[in-house]
Design brief:
CATH class of the largest domain: Alpha Beta
Order of helices and strands: HHEHHEEHEH
Number of helices: 6
Shape: globular
CATH topology of the largest domain: Rossmann fold
CATH superfamily of the largest domain: Nicotinate-nucleotide-dimethylbenzimidazole phosphoribosyltransferase (CobT), large domain
């Protein structure tokens, strides 16, 4: 198993949260018609949002990005589903037939699907953004899935997308991803970042005989 960890320079520093204005925020939250603290974590979230935005009247303008790409590791049979399902699911997103589409419709949020590396070509669509690094990653069992240069390019693309949304007033980003073999890739990333053996980052999986159909969590 080839796992390489590349640590790049930070794309931006996150400053410590200023507590200025906290008293005004708490006064406004506690002044609502309710017992103080009765909304629990919702009140904590409102306080944090107000401090992050530096205002006693925080607002949220959200957008949803689903990033799609294929994983070369799928060649090893780590998923019961064929790699072609990645592109099929992307088309499902674009035509409004997936669970995420129901959620964004309910919340009134814009949805964009990012082709970061789907192995096949996709038809053009107004909600599809093509930023393909390559047609699927390499097989991580045999070689590095992405080169350091490709990783940097991917991070640059992501930063650019966030900048574009921020310029439009978006201040809350909801992220999703799609790609057959993604849980295996996630386990490799977890192993590399936390310096844990791969065996500690995976479970029995949904392909284990006798476990098919049971919860994968």
């Amino acid at each position: 198993m080839i796992i390489e960890k590349h640590v790049s320079a930070p794309y931006g520093s996150i400053s410590e949260l200023s507590r200025e204005g906290e008293d005004a925020l708490r006064t406004r939250i506690d002044g609502k018609t309710k017992p103080p603290g009765s909304l629990g974590r919702l009140e904590e979230l409102a306080l944090k949002l107000g401090l992050m935005q530096g205002t006693a009247a925080p607002t949220l303008q959200g957008a949803v990005l689903v990033v799609a790409g294929d994983h070369g590791l799928a060649e090893e049979g780590v998923s019961p589903f064929p790699q072609a399902v990645t592109a099929q699911m992307v088309l499902n997103f674009l035509h409004g037939g997936a669970a995420i589409n129901v959620l964004v419709r309910q919340m009134g949020l814009p949805l964009k699907v990012i082709d970061a590396g789907v192995a096949s070509e996709l038809p053009s669509h107004p909600d599809l953004v093509v930023n393909k690094l390559r047609a699927g990653t390499r097989n991580a069992l045999r070689e590095a899935a992405l080169t350091p240069e490709e990783v940097e390019a991917g991070l640059d693309i992501g930063a650019g997308l966030v900048d574009e949304l921020a310029a439009k007033g978006v201040n809350a980003l909801l992220l999703g991803e799609m790609g057959i073999g993604n849980t295996s890739t996630a386990a490799l990333i977890m192993s590399a970042l936390l310096e844990l053996p791969v065996a500690e980052c995976v479970g029995r999986g949904i392909t284990t005989p006798g476990w098919r159909g049971r919860s994968r969590y």
